[in-house]
């Protein structure tokens, strides 16, 4: 029998749960929580630790007791035991080299060596594919980004372009200048495309505003996303204003091979990407973003397309003429990182390669789409690069 080293409740100083980022922010597992949510994050961690104090001192706290599924809407195809075990190992809390009392990582949490960027012309050019066999219920990582109240995301969409650093504002203006579009619409489309509603189980109260009721929160991957932001939606043309769109495709859920599930880790609920079935090497990862997610983009997207905005360039920042010259054809092998010249127009808003959302499906056609979105530079930038915007009141998001 393998001996298990017990872990006492005294081995959980609060700093092992999350770290403070910029003034007032909290960073944990690749997530940066906005200052408005930081008190609730700390409160959730403290409540979990308080629960430990109710236990008898001789009772060990095992790794699996630090994690728990939340809610009842978990896909029945998933094994809760496998998901919790794999997440604990990924977080360094379990396994041969794991430590029960290990602090949660501050930076991105992604299953290393299992995935890589890939080309996908049908969905705007880029996606994420498996490099090894990924088994059902395997944890692929924690979906990273900036977590903020749902109400604040509206301010970001409406006014974020006014708070960009001059260099980024100039790049955005260059993309818009070649069309009849306006900067506000282009920004709203860009920021909205990196907007991800989070599971209701992740709702947090705005304690600084005197509220004790949980408020919905959302994730922005604009400037904060990790590799998992490259996961596409099974839909190919979700533009609901076109006659042949597939936004309401009835078998979308069946075509998805991974999903986001809420898992509570030491009192804090994290959005965890999990494989719904076995995924073969070379197969692209797909998850259902939902018809509502596409519809909230439709208005800005339709207007931008009508005004001639190059949505692919907006998203990927690839210089059009050089990409056309470099692109040998849509059926050619994906170019190496140094084969495609990339203009850092809007792409640097991401911490990952520039195709971090499944937005550009059929928005632009031809080899440019493939060339632009397949420009996935390696190695990836550092998790927390220099901010692209001066801090602003609500939210303090890099843009």
TrEMBL record:
Q: Which Gene3D superfamilies match?
A: SET domain
Any one Pfam family match given in the protein's UniProt record, by short name? SET
Q: Where is the SET domain?
A: 125-290
Residue ranges, annotated region (Disordered) = 318-340
Record-linked SUPFAM superfamilies: SET domain
According to UniProt, the name of this protein is SET domain-containing protein
Q: State the InterPro entries in the record.
A: SET_dom, SET_dom_sf
Q: Which domain of life is it from?
A: Eukaryota
């Amino acid at each position: 029998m393998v001996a298990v080293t017990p872990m006492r409740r005294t081995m959980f100083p609060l700093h092992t749960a999350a770290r403070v980022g910029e003034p007032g922010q909290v960073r944990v597992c690749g997530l940066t929580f906005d200052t408005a949510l930081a008190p609730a994050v700390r409160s959730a961690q403290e409540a979990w630790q308080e629960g430990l104090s109710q236990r008898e001192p001789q009772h060990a706290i095992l790794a699996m007791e630090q994690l728990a599924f939340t809610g009842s809407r978990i896909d029945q195809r998933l094994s809760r035991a496998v998901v919790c075990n794999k997440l604990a190992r990924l977080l360094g809390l379990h396994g041969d080299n794991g430590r029960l009392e290990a602090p949660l990582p501050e930076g991105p949490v992604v299953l290393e060596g299992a995935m890589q960027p890939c080309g996908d012309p049908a969905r705007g050019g880029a996606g994420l594919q498996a490099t090894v066999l990924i088994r059902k219920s395997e944890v692929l990582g924690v979906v990273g980004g900036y977590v903020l109240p749902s109400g604040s995301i509206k301010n970001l969409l409406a006014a974020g372009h006014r708070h960009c650093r001059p260099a980024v504002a100039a790049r955005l203006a260059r993309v818009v200048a070649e069309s009849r579009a306006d900067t506000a619409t282009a920004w709203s489309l860009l920021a909205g495309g990196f907007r991800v509603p989070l599971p209701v189980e992740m709702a947090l109260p705005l304690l600084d505003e005197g509220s004790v009721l949980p408020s919905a929160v959302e994730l922005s991957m604009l400037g904060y996303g990790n590799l998992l932001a490259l996961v596409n939606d099974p839909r190919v043309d979700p533009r609901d204003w076109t006659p042949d769109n597939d936004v309401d495709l009835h078998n979308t859920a069946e075509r998805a091979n991974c999903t986001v599930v809420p898992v509570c880790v030491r009192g804090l609920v994290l959005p965890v990407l999990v494989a719904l079935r076995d995924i073969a090497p070379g197969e692209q990862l797909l998850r259902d973003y939902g018809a509502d997610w596409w519809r909230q983009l439709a208005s800005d997207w339709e207007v931008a397309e009508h005004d001639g905005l190059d949505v692919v360039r907006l998203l990927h920042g690839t210089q059009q003429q050089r990409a056309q010259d470099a692109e040998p054809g849509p059926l050619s092998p994906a170019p190496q990182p140094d084969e495609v010249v990339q203009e850092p127009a809007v792409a640097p808003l991401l911490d990952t390669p520039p195709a971090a959302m499944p937005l550009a499906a059929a928005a632009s056609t031809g080899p440019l789409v493939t060339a632009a979105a397949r420009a996935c530079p390696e190695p990836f930038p550092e998790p927390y690069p220099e901010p692209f915007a001066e801090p602003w009141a609500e939210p303090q998001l890099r843009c």
